[in-house]
Amino acid sequence: MQEEKFQQKIEAEQKIEPKDWMPDGYRSHLIRQISQHAHSEIIGMQPEGEWITRAPSLRAKMILLAKVQDEAGHGLYLYSACETLGISREELNKQLHEGKAKYSSIFNYPTLNWADMGAIGWLVDGAAIVNQVSLQKTSYGPYSRGMIKICKEESFHQRQGYEIMTEMANGTKEQKEMAQDALNRFWWPAIMMFGPHDSDSPRTGNAMKWKIKRKTNDELRQNFIDKTVGQADLIGLKIPDPDLKWNEKRGSYDFGEIDWDEFWNVVNGNGPCNEQRLNHHKKAHADGEWVREAAKAYAKKIT
Amino acid sequence: MLDLEKYILRIADSALIISHRLSEWCSKGPTLEEDIALSNISLDLLGQANSLLEYCASINGKISADDLAFRRNGKEFYNFQICELENGHFGDTIIRQFLFDSYTLLFFQKLSQSKDETLSAIATKSIKEIKYHLRHSSNWVIRLGDGTSLSKEKIQNSLNNFWKFTGEFFEMDELDKKMAECKIGVDLYKLKNEWDNIINATFEKAKIQRPDDCVMITGSKKGVHTEHLEKILSKMQYLPRAYPDAKW
Amino acid sequence: MNKAATIWEVFIQSKNGLAHKHVGNVHAEDKEMALQNARDLYTRRNEGSCIWVVKSEHIVSSVPEDSESFFDPANDKVYRHPTFYKMPDGAKHI
Questions:
Q1: Is the Cβ–Cβ distance between B36 and A79 less than 8 Å?
Q2: Separation CA C75–CA A3 (nearest Å)
Q3: Where along chain C do its domains lie?
Q4: Which residue in C6, C11, C26, C29 has the most chain A C-beta atoms within 10 A of its own C-beta, making it the best mutation to test that interface?
Q5: Average pLDDT, chain B
Q6: Smallest Cα–Cα separation from A156: which of A144, A146, A164?
Q7: Which domain holds residue B104?
Q8: Mind listing the pLDDT tens digit for each residue in A77-135?
Q9: Is residue B248 part of a domain?
Q10: Is residue A146 less than 8 Å (CB to CB) from chain C?
């Protein structure tokens, strides 16, 4: 009976709020999806944070600092939305540290030159935008509102990245090489961000039924590719996919097969930076323990 | 280099270098909220540095703000040495920030009355930001000082270690005196008492001891620095120096 | 596992004259830090002129099961809405 009422609400495009009845599966799916998203924002601060100290102009430094600040903020909005489902941030942290929670695999790749900042902003944030715009209509209220807020802030991130790529693609020979190199390394991981093919994604069924997801992995991936190819062409960079071709009949780009071995390898913890990213996060958490304890102790004294 | 340019660089460089140090905390904060707080302060300070460097560049007429930030050598930087010290643990960073914020608030309050309109305007805008920074850093000094016995020990040590770098705040050389006389710059001697009042009040709330007077480190006004500045610059300036013809 | 931090719900008044709106939560141990954290997280783009923070545990909420008795009766009582009343043509300022 409750399940029926719940599903009716979903069909009627009504939002589910924290105190509403929801199936256990809905709750656990959301916790997993939202926390994964939150962890991605936070882990994503690491490769970008690395380059703030090496940003090559005052303007670039300011913009990157503002961007990474936003990532932290987005992580916080998402943890906050996740907590409404009855799980604590501390528990979510624990899941991350124990390898039980995942985050976007793209951040398990290293950032090797300044152009990577461009590639990440342009492609990774670009992919995130495609995903997030769709999620603005997700059925869970706090998640939807979080997404709307994030979307407002995200488009500056993509523009920042594309601007860097444009500048470098039109710059010196070395700059152009760096830009192409970054594109070569980040293109496939970026389109892998959308996850496995729909046919290989067992959770997609429920996610669509409960309107947690509004579009499937493949739909979003196609959307992103169609948007991005022209942007690469415009600045004279070549997307590293020999099978990339405009398909007039579909009105979309055909593209090459993704290396799913690499995808699963990285998702399962064997990417180039998985261990480093997690250790960094654990260290920061451990190093800060005395500070958090001090704040708690002080708060006790004044109440 | 004109006197005014050099005077501006002293202020700009401190903001630039301490902002750089704060940005190193990115993704390493004790809480996510603190990560945002520290990068927020870093961004404010970088903005101040940028405004000042732009002003200096416009007076010079032949170089850009980026040239000033990325192409000067270590001995041409005039930031306070305290700004370039390593971040250490959170307590070290907070004490450094607190000592710097409490000083710069007073400094900019006086600078906002400068006869130089641009400096006055930059100072006025910066005061709002620094008031917020000082609120943040003094709140943490208090919480760490009056938190656990471990936090008290740590922050007391931080203060003891950094104390000898605070003498530079109140040194006046010929340039300072000249600038103060023509009402462009600030009489730094006049800031000392009020600074003492501010920091002593916070130390009391934090239940930590003000360190005894000691021999103070000096030299930044002549471009003399600790070994840390060179390490900062070799990272910060790497790309523009490695690719001198590139535009970013 | 560390003891959980205190959670505070954040309400922002974006402009003078408007009501405060709930925007999410922050973690902090005392009210001063809660206010600061809320300011850093939720007003980076000048979205606020006033911030309220309230410990989550102090919020009292109606429950969905009560919504019928709490809210539905208002649905029939149309005379609370101005559109219920018929005005003669030509009536102004009313």
A1: no
A2: 26
A3: 6-80
A4: C29
A5: 97
A6: A164
A7: 3-242
A8: 999 999 999 999 999 999 999 989 988 889 999 999 999 999 999 999 999 999 999 99
A9: no
A10: yes
Distance, CA of B228 to CA of B237 (rounded, Å): 14
Residue B55 is part of a domain; what is its CATH number? 1.20.1260.10
pTM of the shown model: 0.92
Name which of A272, A302, A297 is nearest A112 in CA terms.
A272
**Mean pLDDT computed over every residue of chain A:** 93
In a domain, B247, yes or no: no
Dist CA A194 CA A130 (whole Å)? 10
Whole-number Å distance between alpha carbons of B25 and B40 = 11
Cβ-defined contact of C26 to B135 (cutoff 8 Å) = no
Within an 8 Å CB–CB cutoff, is residue A81 touching chain C? yes
Instruction: Using the CB atoms, write b or e for B219-230: b if 16+ within 10 Å.
Output: ebbebebbebbe
- Is B183 part of any domain? yes
Confidence at residue C77, expressed as pLDDT on a 0 to 100 scale: 56
Q: What is the CATH number of domain C6-80?
A: 3.10.20.520
- C6 and B CB contact within 8 Å: no
Mean pLDDT, to the nearest integer, of B135-148?
98
The total number of structural domains that make up chain B? 1
Of A49, A46, A39, A43, whose CA–CA distance to A79 is shortest? A39
| CA–CA dist A236, A176 (Å, integer) | 9
The two counts, helices (H) then strands (E), for chain A are 13, 2
Burial C59-75 (b: 16+ CB within 10 A, else e): eeeeeeeeeeeeeeeee
Q: How many CA atoms lie within 13 A of C89 on its CB side?
A: 0
- ipTM score here? 0.96
